[in-house]
């Protein structure tokens, strides 16, 4: 789970922990923990510390115990990344408790999407020594420097910590995250993360090339980050993908950027670079319907370039098939008719469309939900037959629709322990019925494995 060869013993050691996520039944893809790779990169690049990484999706609690046996004595801190839902918070607390029971356990600092919104609540937990709010690329090097130099924690950007029963804060952590890429791949056993993805290629690896999103979907956690959009340049991205493919025998890349196509010129340049370089690789990425509409207006043959460069699948959050919900609730800035037009265009270019929806928004009527399922039926008439996934609305703290959900009767968890039971795969709102859950699961049709379609 880590690489520790050739590291000079005089430098401090940082343990980075990515707790297990409890995915849906039959979920077959466990991707690399990029949130921790982005933290490790500045620590290593600046020579501040050595880093080891533990991924709870790849190893069990017994392996964590052995990992602590090997590394805890030298560690200056343990950094933990948590997101809301999926059981990750509960797994994090269990693993941290195991570390805290050992003598000489160093400070444990939490970060990640959940902390960015509920920093004070997280910092109040007995197992948490500090939290870092905002981009960890900015705050983690400062925190490690404070630990190694024995200086004040209050100087660390985004820090919240307990002191004599009171919470103390560091300065504001700026939202800009800096240049991405050139990840420290040696911290992971890459082969463990290679997947046979029927929508991409037999040897597919995930990758994140940008952070931030310019759209304002009211349910989305991206709104809570308040970070500036930043992305790798197209030429550097092509070179990095080419290098990965050669080193690890890859023939597929699955981009997990929030919206890979925010910068249309970068997207087009990447496609052109793949074509001109003769890279034998297939790839998939997320896209907003407005990206395609903007490309048309700009005269960029985006879908033609995607298909010609090996783009095999485009993931698009459609959210709803009702214009009022799209306009007033989600603020998607697109209409049902435009979604159908864009999806038809994707299919006509031979690219698989993968469309996600949400039902159970606050104030959504049964007729509006029916519009969503009607749109799904229309989309599934295209060739190639698109994937469809229907999610249940989950009120994420810090988003505008979270406040609407609370006003509609949702009772949010009040402690970190209570949040550990929040599961976005099941209904979390009092107005979502068992029938709503059943219907959503029945309409979810994904290509899970080669030659297999299921829920």
UniProtKB/TrEMBL annotation:
CDD domains associated with the record: Radical_SAM (cd01335)
Superkingdom, taxonomy of origin: Bacteria
Tagged with keyword Repeat: no
The protein's required cofactors: [4Fe-4S] cluster
Keyword Iron-sulfur carried by entry: yes
Domain Radical SAM core: 200-455
Domain B12-binding, first and last residues per copy: 11-154
Keywords, alphabetical: Iron, Iron-sulfur, Metal-binding, Methyltransferase, S-adenosyl-L-methionine, Transferase
PANTHER family: ANAEROBIC MAGNESIUM-PROTOPORPHYRIN IX MONOMETHYL ESTER CYCLASE-RELATED (PTHR43409), BLL1977 PROTEIN (PTHR43409:SF7)
Name under which the protein is recorded: B12-binding domain-containing radical SAM protein
Organism: Prauserella endophytica
């Amino acid at each position: 789970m880590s690489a520790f060869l050739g590291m000079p013993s005089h430098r401090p050691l940082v343990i980075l922990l990515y707790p297990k996520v409890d995915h849906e039944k039959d979920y077959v893809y466990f991707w690399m923990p990029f949130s921790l790779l982005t933290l490790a990169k500045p620590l290593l690049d600046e020579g501040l510390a050595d880093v080891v990484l533990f991924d709870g999706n790849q190893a069990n609690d017994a392996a964590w115990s052995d990992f602590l046996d090997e590394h805890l004595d030298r560690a200056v801190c343990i950094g933990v990344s948590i997101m809301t839902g999926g059981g990750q918070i509960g797994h994090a607390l269990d693993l941290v408790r195991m570390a805290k029971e050992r003598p000489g356990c160093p400070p444990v600092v939490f970060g990640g999407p959940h902390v960015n919104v509920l920093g004070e609540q997280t910092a109040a937990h007995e197992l948490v020594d500090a939290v870092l709010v905002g981009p960890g690329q900015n705050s983690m090097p400062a925190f490690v420097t404070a630990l190694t130099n024995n200086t004040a924690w209050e100087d660390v950007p985004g820090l919240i910590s307990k002191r004599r029963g009171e919470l103390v804060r560091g300065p504001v952590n700026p939202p800009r995250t800096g240049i991405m890429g050139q990840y420290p791949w040696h911290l992971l056993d890459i082969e463990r993360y290679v997947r046979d993805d029927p929508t991409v290629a037999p040897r597919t690896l995930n990758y994140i090339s940008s952070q931030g999103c310019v759209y304002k979907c009211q349910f989305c956690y991206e709104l809570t980050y308040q970070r500036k959009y930043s992305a790798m340049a197209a030429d550097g991205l092509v070179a990095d993908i080419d290098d990965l493919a050669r080193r690890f025998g890859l023939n597929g890349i699955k981009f997990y950027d929030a919206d890979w196509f925010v910068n249309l010129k970068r997207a087009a340049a990447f496609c052109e670079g793949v074509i001109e370089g003769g890279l034998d690789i297939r790839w998939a990425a997320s896209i907003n319907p407005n990206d395609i509409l903007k490309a048309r207006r700009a005269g960029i043959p985006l879908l033609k370039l995607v298909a010609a460069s090996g783009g095999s699948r485009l993931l698009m959050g459609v959210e709803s098939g009702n214009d009022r919900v799209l306009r007033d609730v989600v603020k998607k800035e697109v209409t049902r008719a435009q979604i159908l037009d864009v999806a038809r265009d994707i299919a006509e270019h031979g690219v698989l469309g993968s469309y996600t929806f949400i039902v159970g928004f606050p104030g959504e009527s049964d007729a509006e939900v029916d519009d969503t399922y009607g749109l799904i039926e229309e989309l599934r008439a295209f060739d190639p037959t698109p994937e469809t996934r229907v999610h249940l609305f989950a009120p994420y703290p810090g988003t505008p629709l979270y406040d609407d959900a609370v006003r509609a009767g949702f009772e949010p968890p009040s402690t970190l322990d209570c949040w550990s039971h929040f599961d976005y795969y099941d209904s979390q709102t009092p107005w979502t019925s068992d029938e709503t859950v059943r219907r959503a699961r029945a309409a979810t049709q994904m290509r899970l494995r080669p030659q297999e379609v299921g829920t």
